[in-house]
Write a structure and sequence with these properties.
- This protein is mostly beta strands.
- The protein has a domain of 88 residues: Pectate Lyase C-like (3 Solenoid), CATH 2.160.20.
- The longest helix is centred in the C-terminal third of the chain and has 10 residues.
- The N terminus is likely disordered.
- This is Pentapeptide repeat protein.
- It comes from Sphingobium indicum BiD32.
Length: 229
Amino acid sequence: MDNLFASQPIAGATLARSDIERLIGGAARTLIDCDLEEADLSGLDLTRWRFERCNLRRSDLAGAKLEGTVWQGCRGPFANFSGANLSEAEFIGGDWNNCAMRRASLTSTRFTGSKLTGADFTEARAMHIHFEEVLLVSAKLPGFSFRKEALRRVDLSGADVRKGDFRMTVFEDCSLREAMVAGSRFEGSDLRGADLGGLRLVDAGLFRGATISREQAGQLLGELGLNVR
């Protein structure tokens, strides 16, 4: 009977670290409409837990084990995921603006329909990551690898993607407007579905080997001070 109750979702509760610690063990838990604002969940093992419409504003999940977690419709501005293991996690909808994912493990992590404006992914370890309908405006992604990924409706306007790996990446209805792209690699990428306006090219050959449209070519040459007629 205890195991039966342990499998029931917890809804509408305000939870602190001590409450979460009592829930750990046995089956993964589901939290719905719970308030975890500023909660210290650092280092906890929450593998496969599910969070739906929860408030995680300024919560601390640094170093937590979060493999296979699901975060659906949550609000987590300024949440701290630094050093956490988010492999195979799913972020579906929700507002995660200015969250910290520094040094996080993001293997096969999926972000769909989410707001990540100003998020910090510095030194995150990402492989096979999936972004779709995501706002990454002014996000920090230096050295990030998008290699061979298909980016759909991803807004990287003003983002720091210096030394990023975009080789063989396909952009569909995306924006790199005024992004910082110095040192990035675009060989084999298809940029025809990306807004490249306002890019300041420090290397005229930055997009060598990439596919762009005639209109984009004119834009890029215009940024170099050339008149295209």
